[in-house]
Inverse folding.
């Protein structure tokens, strides 16, 4: 006599200032935890070298983005540093219904919007060790010019003020420690009774 457990999916929101290491952490987390599916966002920005359509983003033009917006196809959407980004609602809803753990790597505006809409989610804010370390990371990444970097740093100062709206925070100083802290949060959250109910069946 035992039980068959069908878990319900978890909506995992990872957010934080630009350059804090979200993308780096998400790649590591997903490599170690195959139960997590990445929510591939739609964006109007151009692909960077090495980025793949349908893997990193769905790259669309303004007209297509406007069409999706008008059709209410986004769970959330935001303009981030002059480009538009949106989370396609249907892929998230379908994955959660299928019991998958869905990960959103989205900016703080989008994260707060999802938190207001969704009834069940796990929200994690990624902090840099310091603003000076954040500046170094933005320069080292080499994707933005100095003026843009200063703009992202000013945004970061505002974004960290909302940290208490998130359930968890991880300081991304030592990368290995931050990855293991993320895994601990995800593993604990997987064991919440809400993810087992009401689908425990007798075999
Ligand atoms: P985000 O996705 O939050 O914008 P990235 O993942 O692109 O940030 O990381 C920004 C830069 O910081 C990258 O060059 C990345 O290699 C580096 N980085 C990420 N985590 C760490 C860390 N723990 N220590 C030092 N550098 C890091
Ligand atoms: P990048 O252009 O560097 O990949 O991402 C810029 C910012 O946009 C990052 O903070 C990233 O988390 C955020 N972002 C990516 N996809 C989405 C999305 O669908 N919605 C929102 N609100 N932000 C997103």
């Amino acid at each position: 006599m035992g039980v068959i457990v069908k878990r319900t999916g978890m909506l995992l929101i990872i957010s934080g200032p630009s350059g804090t290491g979200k993308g780096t952490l998400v790649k590591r987390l997903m490599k170690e935890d195959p139960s997590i599916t990445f929510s591939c966002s739609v964006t109007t920005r151009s692909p960077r070298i090495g980025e793949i359509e349908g893997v990193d983003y769905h790259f669309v033009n303004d007209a297509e983005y406007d069409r999706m917006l008008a059709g209410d196809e986004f769970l959330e959407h935001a303009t981030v540093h002059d480009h538009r980004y949106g989370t396609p609602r249907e892929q998230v809803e379908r994955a959660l219904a299928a019991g998958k753990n869905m990960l959103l790597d989205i900016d703080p505006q989008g994260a707060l919007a999802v938190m207001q809409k969704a009834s069940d989610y796990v929200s994690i804010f990624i902090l840099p060790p310091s603003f000076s370390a954040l500046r170094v990371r933005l320069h080292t990444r080499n994707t933005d010019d100095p003026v843009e970097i200063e703009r992202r740093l000013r945004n970061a100062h505002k974004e960290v003020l909302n940290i208490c709206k998130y359930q968890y925070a991880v300081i991304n100083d030592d990368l290995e420690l931050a990855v293991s802290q993320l895994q601990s949060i995800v593993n604990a959250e997987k064991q919440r009774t809400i993810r087992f109910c009401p689908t425990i069946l007798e075999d």
User: Anything to note?
Assistant: The mean pLDDT is 93.
